[in-house]
Amino acid sequence: MSRTELQTLPERAVELLGGEPDDTTLRRYLHGLPGVDAVGLEQRAADLGTRSIKTTSKAWALDKIIELIDLTTLEGADTPGKVRSLVAKAMNPDASDPTCPRVAAVCVYGDMVPYAVEALGDAHGDPDEGGISVAAVATAFPSGRASLEVKLADTADAVAHGADEIDMVIDRGAFLAGRYGQVYDQIARVKQACRREDGSYASLKVILETGELKTYDNIKRASWLAILAGGDFIKTSTGKVQPAATLPTTLLMLEVVRDWYRATGERIGVKPAGGIRTSKDAIKYLVTVAEIAGEEWLQPHLFRYGASSLLNDVLRQRKKIATGHYTGSDYVTID
Amino acid sequence: MSFLEYAPAPESRAILSLKPEYGLFIDGEFHPGTGGTFETISPADESRIATVATASDEDVDAAVTAARRAFDKTWSKMSGRDRGKYLFRIARLIQERSRELAVAESLDNGKPIKESRDVDIPLVAAWFFYYAGWADKLDYAGLGPNPRALGVAGQVIPWNFPLLMLAWKIAPALAAGNTVVLKPAETTPLTALLFAEILQQADLPPGVVNIVTGAGATGAAVVRHPDVDKVAFTGSTAVGREIAKAVAGTDKKVTLELGGKAANIIFEDAPIDQAVDGIVTGIFFNQGQVCCAGSRLVVQESIHDEVVERLKARLSTLRLGDPLDKNTDIGAINSLEQLNRVRELSRIGDEEGAERWTADCAIPDKGFWFAPTIFTNVQTSHRIARDEIFGPVLSVLTFRTPDEAIAKANNTPYGLSAGIWTEKGSRILAVADKLRAGVVWANTFNRFDPSSPFGGYKESGYGREGGRHGLAAYLKGAA
Q: What is the DSSP string of B306-339?
């Protein structure tokens, strides 16, 4: 599902940009995009947040949310044991209910990929086929402050160990300084580093770290830049910077992928990450995806939640629908 | 299943305890009227809600007499601070009963519950809070020290924002020390009658506010009554003209808030997705039944196709249906009469050669409905570009230069509101300066605040409501 025809990518970028993707051409293109009115954007997000999702719609939404989760652990204290525990939860979120769907992927640091792959065993695979993918953060996550060589090695290492998806960070410093060519080039090179021996590619999620880009205009430009450079997904945040994912930011990024689809016929994914902890919030995102990009985006290759604590809240809501009452926190497993 | 077909999420009607019949609210009590009765129905399914009294000329006379007595004996003698206390109390009661009022408003008017809940009722409370604060500060209203109330205000309000228009009228009148006889619209008397119950709850002295229900004849009786000192009307320009004639040569002060045909100007450097949302808010908010609706889209030619395409895609996501469902975006048209007017003008648009596009949505069997509609290829000479349609119908015109945009925006007998969409701040100021409209929104539309004056140029009426200016309409200088 990744953008396999890589050869055509630079050509298309050149065609859309009207020149080689250097600072000048990219600046002309990105600054020529229509601006974003913050008040209007936030108003629209707030309006979508008032949708009332009840009964059958809610039950469907809760299962769908689980299927779209990248169950994440990104701690300095992570160990193989912690990763095995996370994987077990990913494969069997609700020990008391075999009908509960699996999550889409587990998301770990690069050095934890072998343990995740091993723990998944036969369950390792494409979420479309009932499998669980392994996503690895790379490129000197979360700051991205390392040389390109290190970032590429970081990426290639994770892919070699079996990562299906790479969550890279952009160089926010370069972006804010207007060195768009550099940001573009890094994304394109990391994409190349996602190449496996058999010629296929790991899916590339490009983390914009919207909390550091600050303005909606910047977020919109960074979204276009990441897609032009070959990202399969645009992702809001590392989770290490506040604010992380917000509904207006995600709405804006969904508008970008919708517009990209209209322009090229190609669908790019969106992943809000960090700060989505409750089912209520997650449902607002689901509504926003469906109403902005379209329902076809509600599938693991086009939308993900980067979350850790969200899953348990969704499980408790599921139980509430099944049994009519809320359970205590000890009735779901901690991980 | 399709997720977007959200399961029904109806707001409960159980919170409402309506009486089967309502009389006239005169001198603090409900009285049966002497002019017969009429039914108020739900425009969403044409079901009967309640039977309401029609006020005869004698009933109106009794209401004005009660208002005069309350003015002379109580309200004009009360300190501003004490009047303010009553207004604060009313505002708080509105907040406490907001859910009930929202349900009643959506039931009687047909507007979506999300609008009555999130816009109408919160603004009603805000209006009373705002003017409550003014009651003891009238010396600072800009009319010199110790300005005086006018006396009895006769107020006639429309059906598009029933309770909000009541608040726009009653709050400043009471804060300034006037007493009131108010006539709600024939098709939407319900929330005004619930408001009368709130006044009883607030222990407002009898006669300070009187509510008389009925049709046009009742309104005319209020306006023409010789003991009314001030007339305030919101509604159609045709009726506004009649009122202006009726009060000509009398001492009555008048404010008229009438029709509009606002231009929503989209420049090519506009924030396009928010502009599309703004167009939707401008013309499809409250089914377009808004006097300041942005019913003429004046878009720069270079982005016309893109804006129209995005607009159509956006409109296709709107949900039309049960006004009490929390996910409904487009409710019912308020009355059959209004629906017929919207249909007739749309038919004329077809005949004039404009191109009609209608959102694909299922129309319920019962009730009064009109799907969101856009006319493109509209020329300034078309009637759909000139007449107020007062429905969910947008006419799209184009321009090439800012001067042409301004000329087209101003080329209307109305002048109530306008919108400007551009990322360039200096252009906002330059264009706003040349638009002959009472309210100009920049990069937003249909936003209201009690501190901001609202009113029209030309055939959109005269006088201002809201803010300090709105207060001045109910006061006279000490001199």
A: HHHHHHHHHHTT--BS-TTBTT-SB---S-HHHH
According to the 3-state scheme, what is the secondary structure of A57-96?
Answer: HHHHHHHHHHHCEEEECCCCCCCHHHHHHHHHHHHCCCCC
Say yes or no for a CB contact (<8 Å) between A34 and B114. no
**Residue A108's CB: how many other CB atoms inside 10 A?**
28
Give how far Cα A115 sits from Cα of A81, A311, B358, Å: 9, 21, 56
Contact A291 B327 (CB under 8 A): no
* Rounded Cα–Cα distance for residues B205 and B211 (Å): 14
Strands A69-72 and A105-109: parallel
The catalytic site residues of A sit at 167, 235, 271
Interface pTM, i.e. ipTM: 0.95
CB contact under 8 A, B444 and A64: no
Three-state secondary-structure class, residue A122: helix
Band of pLDDT at residue A1, cut at 50, 70 and 90: very low
- Give the tens place of pLDDT for each residue, B20-38: 999 999 999 999 999 999 9
Q: How many helices and strands in chain A, by DSSP H and E? A: 14, 8
Tokens 């004996």 -> residue: B73
Identify all chain B residues contacting A41, using CB atoms and an 8 Å cutoff.
273-274
For residue B107, pLDDT over 80 is answered with yes
Which tens digit of pLDDT belongs to each residue from A183-202?
999 999 999 999 999 999 99
Complete edge-to-edge strand list for the sheet that includes strand A233-235: A269-271, A233-235, A203-207, A165-169, A133-137, A105-109, A69-72, A305-307
SS3 B413: coil
Pick left, alpha or beta for residue A162 (phi over 0 → left; psi -120 to 50 → alpha; otherwise beta): left
Hey, what are B225's tokens? 């009554």
* HSE-CB for B128 with a 13 A CA cutoff: 25
What distance in Å separates the CA atoms of residue A48 and residue A287, rounded to the nearest whole number?
Answer: 7
Which three-class secondary structure state does DSSP give residue B166?
helix
Q: What is the CA radius of gyration of chain B?
A: 22
Q: Which of A249, A240, A181, A299 is nearest to A41 (CA)?
A: A249
Nearest Cα neighbor of A133 from A115, A120, A151 is A120
Strands A305-307 and A69-72: parallel
Altogether, the residues listed in chain B come to a count of 479
* Confidence tier at A6 by pLDDT (50, 70, 90): low
Strands (E), B150-241: 152-156, 179-183, 209-211, 230-234
Other Cβ atoms within 10 Å of B79 Cβ, number: 11
Rounded Cα–Cα distance for residues A261 and A263 (Å): 5
> Partners of B297 in the beta sheet?
B264, B396
pLDDT at A215 over 70: yes
Token digits of residue B297? 């889209």
Residue type, B59: D
Angle at A183 between CA A179 and CA A187, to 5 degrees: 165
**B2, B6, B443 member nearest A40 (Cβ):** B443
Q: Which of B7, B327, B443 lies nearest to residue A37, judging by beta carbons?
A: B443
- Find which of B6, B12, B113, B316 to mutate to test the A interface (most A CBs within 10 Å of its CB): B6
**Per-residue pLDDT reduced to its tens digit, B443-460:** 999 999 999 999 999 999
Angstrom distance (rounded) from CA A255 to CA A234: 12
Which stretch of DSSP H or E encloses residue B113? helix B113-115
| Cis status, amide bond into A243, omega within 30 of 0 | yes
Give yes or no for residue B16 having a pLDDT over 80.
yes
Which runs of E-coded beta strand occur in B301-449?
355-358, 373-376, 393-399, 417-421, 439-442
| Residue B51: predicted pLDDT | 98
